[in-house]
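Model it.
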Amino acid sequence: MGLRWRSGLAIGAMVLAALAPSFAGAASAPALAAHAEAGRAFDALRAAQPGRMPRLAEAEAGTLLRVLGDAPRFLDDMNYTPAELGVLSDLCDRNKAAITAYISFGAVQPSGIDASVVVRNVLEFQDELAVLQPFLARCIARQVPIAEAMLRQMGERQASQLRLGGLKRSQTSLLQLYAGIATCFSDPRFGPAYCGLLDLMAELAPVHARALPLASRTMAIRLLPPLQQLPAGPQREAVQRIVDAMSDDRCTALCLLGTAP
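Modeled.
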């Protein structure tokens, strides 16, 4: 099945380093270091009190969570070159690790993952997830055009190494995000901060779809409630936009890469 996605990207990055132009707005090392430090500090908080999770309402934890979820600072204000795709992947992975920590807290049992604990965690930590999840959705969307540009500049042999690994992690993360917004339609205990992710996912769905194989696009649609069950209004319009994007049956670049044998 080839090398891991990020290992493949590292190979491509070395090839492109000499080809990619220098940008005045390229990713800022001090800013990226701040995100990495927030990740380390978050892990330290967890290690200091393993029996609980850091909460948004707590001063130190809240500050760290807001840094980890600061899309304007680390995504919108950055110009990532193809050679920096691995750096961008690190941002996404760091954010996803924090999300996973909240969702899986206490859910790992000798027999496997306790789904009931996962559901309880998502409800309990929805305020924290509402800060982190939009960053992940935007981060994956930022990866897509950069990875596509890399593929256009790489030969077929090198591109064939960009399989699984990070691509599969991003695909899984996207489906988890779409599943998360689906719960807002079935469980009134989820508040507007968490459920506000729906609008962002609708906005980014056309880009997300380009990273998903056709089968995963179909799954994303199935995770959401049928349109005919939703009353007219903004939520139905948002779901319609997602369905329209995921119904696109064109499969190129990352889509093909994800489905190749």
